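2024-03-11 09:14:02 DEBUG pipeline.ingest accepted 1 chain
2024-03-11 09:14:02 DEBUG pipeline.ingest length=1022
2024-03-11 09:14:03 DEBUG pipeline.predict start
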Amino acid sequence: QQLLSFQPYAERPQRANNFVSRLRQAMNARPKSMYTRKRLDSYDRRTYYRLLSQMGVDSEPALRGKLNINYANDWFTGHNTQTNWTADEFINRAAHAMLRAGLVTRSAPNPVTGNIYTAGFIGGKVVNPDIGIAGLRHPSFPVPQNQGVFNPTNGVSSGIQIFPANAYTPEVHRLLQVAANIYDATTNQLVYPNPPTVMRPVFRKYANPGSAPGLFISHYTEVTNDWQRIRRQSFMKLATVVLNSQLAFDTDLHINIHGVPWIVGAKKGLPNFNEYSVESIVQVSRRLEVNKGNKNNISPAMSRNWRTNQMYTLGITNVFGIEGWNSYTNAYPRRLAMDIRHQYQIGLWDHSVTNQSGIALPKLLTNLVSTPYNKFTTLQKKWRGREFKVPLNIGATTITNSIYSTGLKRFFPANRAFTNVFESGFAVPDWKLHITNRVQYFLVDLDLNRVVDAVNLDNLVTSMDITQLTTGQTGAASSLFGSGNLSEGAFWETNRVNASQGNRSPTFGVMNQIQVARGQKPVSAAFWRSYNNDPYTGRNKEKAIQDFDDFLRGTNIRRNPLGKYPSDTIRKQAPFTPTRKIYKRASWQANDPLVHYTVNDLTDPIITDRFSTNNVVYLRPPNTPLPRNNLGLINERYRPWGGGGQLADVNDYNFYAKDPLIVNSDAWQFPDNKFPGIGWLGRVHRGTSWQTMYLKSGVASLTNWWSWSGSFGTHNLMKGFDRDRDGMPDYWETLYGLNPQKQDAYFDPDIDGIVNLQEYRAGTHPLLGTSLLGLSTTHPTNDWRLLQLFTTAPNASAATGLLSVNQTNAAAWSAVFSGLTVLSNSLPDSPTLGAFVAEVGTAEEAHLIQPTSPQLDWILNGTHGQQTMWINGRSNVIYGMNQKRRAKGGFRTLGDVLSTPTLTEFSPFLNINPMEMALKGVPTEQQKYAIHENVMEWIPQQILSLLKEDEPRITVYAFGQALKPAENSIVTRPGQYYQMCTNYAVVGEVFTKTTYKLEDQWEGTNKVFRAVIEDYQVLAEE
């Protein structure tokens, strides 16, 4: 029964015995003594009203705009069909809802053109403002008309734009991944390991008169046993799809595009793609020759006629590898097959080329495009637990040791015919090596005829600035150079002795080489022998130095038997030839084996960054064996709770970045059936490493989170012309209001501290200050806003009577918490706690929350009334729910209640010292080793389905009467009041209650609100 007022609580049969009399007694005057009586104070007189305010009032069914996790429903009406979702229906709808809820739009004037820009952002990255799943509408987050570029008047989403601007950011992919993970958590089958749900994108092109068409991901569709047909389709380049006139507009395109990921749900027990590795080995040498011209110039007095010539030799080899890993203890029980596709393009450029104005005009020296590698292999044995497999490990010689002509800008083979090809002058090549790779990896369960892993990576780029690297490590090494101040990099210095002479002036690197060849600067004998191959003098340091010095001095010259000077008295090579052999490895590695589907998922700031030199090794001497790559080993990036990879990490025990006690892949505890409540979303993998959806209150360091999460920027799917050579493609500059013919890479027009080139690489907007949005929009606390998009209520009654998160009274919250079973970690503190848990496991005790317990007071009020203490800039104050609500000015969403630390990491039921942690800011031993993620988030996992967010509503009570003229009330006397009624009699009365909901809508570009009647009732007489 729905009660329309509080009056029925005081009427039979609802009221308890003596309820009214006891309430009246509490409010009436009571004798102070037998002679006097004292009127109750105002606090006691208002007992009844305080009682009413403590009670959680009734609510309408909280179903509109919500997607039922367990059963198919209509999010406009909330109607539940009690039938299971299909993958296509649920994942597309959930993705659309989360994309729309996560969208932020901003408008600002373009400082270049003066036009008004409206841009959409998700996680601080630019997306199309109508982003979503094509054709869908969400009642709470509609697409305003005139916001889409390619269908401005439809008021529905165009999809996820990938051209001309790429809105497929790491944050967008994560929301799509969460949609699939939620679905997969409810669809476990009888076989184990359960195959994941695999979704592939369906594309759509939109015409754009006068410009290139737009390309969007329209929606996703499930890949089942039709994978072989899809496998036979070739993957297309993005540019080919955009420019191909045979691909029709406004129709679904069932094609595959390089670099656009498939979505694979998170399931336990499955082997996964784990690493892609690129190794580059570069060896560069420089020989010098002094040519005196003829016998008349032998004397040093004629040195003005001498020429010093140089010859560069260069060799480049690359090695490519792919690795898979079964990160679980158990072997995979069924037959598997791998479908591997790989292609690379290697370009070597010389950036020393300039035009007459001095503008750099880099020349492409080598452009090696590999034949596509495509191999389908059935694995002969079961994939054992913890076993690595390396299906690809191949080498490619880009340049066999070859002579480089700095004048002709080309290579010659280093054979007998070209052995002594020296060039005059001291030109320095500026070599830059760029390698672009694409990889597809599909793992198929042959027994189930299902794809269990799918990876589609493109534009995996690594670079080497060879000339810059040759000068690296300039610190002197006494073991190589004795007491001198030389280093290996000193022979490759590019500054000139006389810069005004240009290439006619030797570099300091050349001068150092000559001085070592003459013995004027010392090097060790071992170092000398390592870098010289002359069988006569090169291996004998002292003899070689003496011969070369005699040549330069013109002494100890002997004629041949014919009386002529030998050729080595006219021209002679310097006996010391510096050589640098440089090894660089770029590795795209999975941190969490469940997170490996995009380039950003696999990118590390150190071992992947194309511009980083941290992963460069100088091989001394050049015949030193190459370092071992990481294939077949635990990834350097593998960092579950407590660490586990090869590198130490500040996040080893950071429960704001990863889930506590998820120490390996076997430790996951995903849901495996229908959800009992939306709080169980906290057990669903959120698409970032080692983390489920976030129900805790804490905020990690934003910079730390940015590097941990893989939010390194938008991975550019398509290159383009760059007329001004400022590193930003013309189409991108034009799209965002920059001048493509002006070198403005290091300008900052929006004054946000991020220059245009950084904005391009990060995927942010160059004209809209990113600092105002902040990196916080990528933080896991953004999961809070997603919770209110879902429900598990089987019908309208189950979604009625929920408590508002902005309820301020303890009694109402006591009704939510009382009787709730909670878990508490029960292991005692011990120096060996970590080792004990690793061997035996954790232990928990169950408790019931009592209505008036101090623990409930802690949840609601935290450390209220306690004197604040500050140590090292940290306060011992811990906010409860009431303090958090006041500080935030009210909880705006359902998930905002999770900002209360006493619900999770500072729960009164956790066996920790909260004061110690609050002051130190580091996890205690209990938090490191004894408190599981599900125990820490136990309370919100149980209560969230009992709560609801506030929505703007107005309740109007209206009283009306029907009247008629009373008897003898009509004036009958002549005059100005003739026939006037002077009195009325009431013939009917009505009392109504109308509830209005305020919904936002768009009128053009203006957001306005309209009142919608949600409920209308004629109230009964009381």
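2024-03-11 09:14:41 DEBUG pipeline.report The longest helix spans residues 170-185.
2024-03-11 09:14:41 DEBUG pipeline.predict end
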